[in-house]
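// run 5 | inverse folding | seed 20
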């Protein structure tokens, strides 16, 4: 489904990523983790063809992303950025815009409208459907942007810190929805997260980025105090409770 092979990326002379290789299958939920500035967003943007790697390739279904047209790519990959600007349009219109790659005529068809209704329902946004984007909260906007990516019906859904502005209940709800989508719709979901414990709860596997490279990747077996301490430069304990693992930072207040 998704293959990243020996990817290298630099902003002019400043190298951000080097030798990044991994493969992910449809239906999986993958978390990309690492410190601020480690290169996580850059990696996601290279996969979404928003940045051009200096070396290496990104393949989706065996085909180099460079050989997809913009419209073909939009039907395969949806990208939810970390920051976004809003226009004076309603929640309904914003989500409907996610259907753009599927539009065949001048007006949206009944399937487009059905998908929007479904997204409003799944993301619990019905009550906000006809509010303007600049009249809703940051967390509500976050859900709208994810709903817009969902109606795009991508095979690969890339999300850069999608739970950033959300309260704890909505963080869990959004991650639950994304996990359910990965399973039911067989979408590959690749998410950048900073909350390690939520990443552990919801992900099938993890990619830790450090010093431009993949420091570790794999399932829950790689979530060890040694790996986390080295990646983040913070002492932690990894504890087991009711068969679940938890990362606990060892911090002194002063
Ligand atoms: N447009 C740009 N031009 C030059 N350098 C950039 C640009 N965008 C990002 N960088 C640098 O590239 C490095 C990687 O940035 P990136 O945004 O990928 O990190 P990140 O892991 O996503 O960080 P965060 O967790 O803070 O979002 C950082 O050092 C950043 O300052």
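// decoded
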């Amino acid at each position: 489904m998704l293959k990243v092979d020996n990817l290298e990326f630099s902003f002019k002379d400043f190298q951000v990523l080097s030798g990044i290789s991994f493969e992910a299958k449809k239906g999986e939920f993958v978390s990309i983790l690492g410190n601020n500035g480690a290169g996580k967003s850059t990696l996601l943007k290279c996969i979404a063809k928003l940045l051009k790697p200096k070396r290496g390739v990104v393949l989706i279904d065996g085909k180099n992303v460079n050989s997809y047209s913009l419209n073909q790519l939009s039907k395969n990959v949806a990208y939810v950025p970390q920051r976004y600007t809003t226009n004076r349009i309603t929640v309904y219109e914003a989500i409907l815009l996610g259907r753009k790659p599927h539009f065949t005529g001048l007006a949206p068809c009944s399937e487009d409208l059905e998908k929007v209704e479904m997204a409003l329902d799944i993301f619990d946004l019905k009550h906000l459907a006809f509010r303007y984007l600049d009249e809703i909260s940051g967390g509500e906007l976050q859900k709208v942007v994810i709903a817009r990516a969902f109606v795009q019906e991508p095979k690969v859904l890339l999300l850069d810190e999608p739970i950033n502005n959300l309260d704890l209940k909505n963080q869990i709800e959004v991650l639950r929805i994304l996990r359910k989508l990965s399973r039911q719709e067989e979408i590959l979901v690749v998410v950048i997260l900073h909350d390690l414990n939520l990443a552990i709860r919801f992900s099938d596997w993890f990619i830790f980025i450090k010093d431009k490279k993949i420091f570790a990747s794999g399932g829950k077996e790689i979530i060890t105090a040694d790996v986390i301490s080295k990646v983040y430069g913070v002492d932690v304990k990894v504890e087991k409770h009711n068969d679940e693992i938890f990362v606990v930072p060892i911090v002194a207040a002063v």
